[in-house]
Specification:
8-stranded antiparallel β-barrel, 12 strands, about 200 residues
């Protein structure tokens, strides 16, 4: 899986030598959650992402848009344990930090003067370079020798962009297919609102 991830990154770089390539950058924030058979007590968590990519057009409407992104995902475990009426435990947060490569196909529609609508969908590969569980002032590395985190993720990326000249305002949802923990069914899900610029 690691070799496949590196291969995709190399292919992304090699594609930039082609003609008609345009560059873009974006940043965003949103809410991440986890789903699966063992994620019943997890709730949404505030996250963000930043990335850069290219666009290779094939027709006036269709294009391919690979990107390289730093993305935060995770969830919260909310529980309120009280002792003599006072709250003594309020749960913890789970944070995973990914280097990921989404490769989406995009269909662009002109909807008004200087405005375009772009629909996007495609797969992504991700590698978690850091991950932690934070409880109060304490944190635990999920990738330590005693941890249980899994570094690799893969899934689907869906999105819609509104383009005004070179500015891009978008919304994206990422649905992970691989569990983020050993021997558990807990998968990533994340929604982002993004702002970008095309060069």
């Amino acid at each position: 899986m690691k070799k496949l991830f590196i291969l995709v990154c190399v292919a992304l770089f090699a594609t930039t030598v082609s003609a008609q390539i345009t560059w873009n950058m974006k940043a965003g924030f949103g809410m991440a959650n986890c789903y699966g058979g063992d994620a019943g007590h997890l709730s949404s968590h505030f996250v963000g992402k930043i990335g850069a990519g290219i666009e290779k057009p094939f027709t006036s409407n269709w294009s391919l848009m690979p990107s390289l992104e730093l993305a935060m995902k995770g969830a919260k475990y909310d529980i309120d344990v009280r002792l003599n009426g006072a709250s003594v435990y309020k749960g913890f947060t789970v944070d995973y930090y990914y280097l990921q490569v989404p490769v989406v196909a995009a269909y662009r529609i002109n909807i008004a003067s200087k405005w375009n609508l772009t629909l996007k969908a495609g797969p992504y590969l991700a590698y978690a370079f850091a991950g932690k569980i934070k409880e109060g002032d304490e944190s635990f590395n999920v990738f330590s020798k005693d941890g249980y985190g899994k570094r690799f993720d893969a899934g689907l990326d869906f999105g819609v962009d509104f383009e005004y000249q070179r500015f891009v305002f978008g919304a994206e949802y990422e649905l992970g297919f691989m569990s983020i923990e050993e021997q558990s069914d807990i998968k990533n899900g994340a929604f982002y609102v993004t702002v970008g610029y095309k060069f």
